[in-house]
Amino acid sequence: MGAAAGGGRAARALRLLLLLVLALAAVEYLFGSILDASPLRTYLYTPLHNATQSTLRTSDKTSQVWPKKLTPSATIENSLKNSSQKVAFSNSTNKNNSSRDISNMTRQNVSEDFSTPLLITKIMEGIKNLVTTEDGELKVSEPSLPLCDEMPSDLGPISVNKTEIELDWVEKRYPEVQVGGYYSPPNCTARHKVAIIVPYRDRQQHLAIFLNHMHPFLMKQQIEYGIFIIEQEGTSDFNRAKLMNVGFVESQKQKPGGWQCFIFHDIDLLPLDSRNLYSCPRQPRHMSASIDKLKFKLPYEDIFGGVSAMTLEQFTKVNGFSNKYWGWGGEDDDMFYRIKKMNYHIARYKMSIARYAMLDHKKSAPNPKRYQLLSQTSKTFQKDGLSTLEYELVRVTRRHLYTHVVTNIDERS
Ligand code: BGC
């Protein structure tokens, strides 16, 4: 009996000991270092950067990534200061990613001062504006603004002033336009990035009127744009289409990231309604459908001349314009055939919106070869256009209200 009682006590003592060991192990597992808790730690702290690799890489290369002169928290403070004018960004995926960023960042880099929920929220806002540059440094990005309205509310019919004016005077009127003729809305993120390509020669009196009309017109539409005046040097016949190809290539070189939409624009046409949005829809758009000098009537259904809009993709798919139309006429019809051949169709605003005023000028001599060239377009357009474009770039100058590209296109490609 005594032996049985002694055995029972020993068993209880053993169970107690076992429990004690288990409890200790649990404590160590959670707080200590005896057991390997790395899977748990990994789960708690490390995977977060994967979801945000494109905007923020901090977990594995912190010392290389932070700017050397600033401590991480100084950088964050910096970004907080900079983010104070910012408007919140919109999509929920970003929100999630950013909150993941901050949990990672807070643990690794942020001092005790940032421990309150309010400060954490502020830091999160700051971190949304940090981006990793190509050379691996973190810097503060521009605060993201809300998207501009698709159709700003104060658009409608406008008048045109055809009186001759001095370019110097026009330049003083639009200080908000940046050098090169660039503009992007200050209070919202533009939906469209548009290059306005204007073939040009000997039309100085038109240039000032054009810029004086177009800048306020485009600014009102809240788009990001640049105006490119592409001047043909020399005395050969004017080649509007080839100049537009040059304008397409050269304007693209001027903008990091490039333009998405191209408006090919005669300098003598001025839009009469600001609802005529200078953007690029899914189909190439003929903009100048309704011109005062043509009694506001469309001359023929397939016309694509005057002012037209094409996306980067549309323009490259049709191989740009032909380079072969020297003298007046035909090059726009040629573009129409290319568009049709690539299964696009022409879009237009209604005639009450697509209205333009035409400035006076001498009529140029029509190109007698245009019909013969047009009869070949459908068969030859892949071998005549952007793919065969050759020109000499004489100079590119960024003036206040436009980028001036002077080119010698005489090489008959
Ligand atoms: C020409 C086009 C021009 C149109 C309207 C056509 O005959 O080929 O280039 O745009 O007339 O003037």
Name the features.
binds beta-D-glucopyranose, single chain, alpha/beta, 13 strands, 14% strand, Spore Coat Polysaccharide Biosynthesis Protein SpsA, Chain A, 36% helix, 2 domains, disordered N terminus, 413 residues
Q: Which architecture name of the largest domain does CATH use?
A: Alpha-Beta Complex
Q: How many structural domains in the coordinates?
A: 2
Question: Quick check: average pLDDT?
Answer: 76
Q: Approximately how much beta-strand content do the residues carry?
A: 5-15%
Structural class: alpha/beta
From the alpha-carbon coordinates, what is the Rg to the nearest angstrom?
A: 32 Å
Between the first and last Cα atoms, what is the distance in angstroms? 115 Å
**Low-confidence runs (pLDDT<50, min 5 residues)?**
1-5, 27-134
Helix content estimate: 25-40%
Shape: elongated
CATH topology of the largest domain: Spore Coat Polysaccharide Biosynthesis Protein SpsA, Chain A
Give me the count of strands: 13
Small-molecule binders here are: beta-D-glucopyranose
* Major beta-sheet overview: 8 strands, mixed
Counting H and I runs of at least 4 residues, what is the number of helices?
Answer: 13
Instruction: Give the H and E element order.
Output: HHHHHHEEHEEHEHEEEEEHHEHHEE
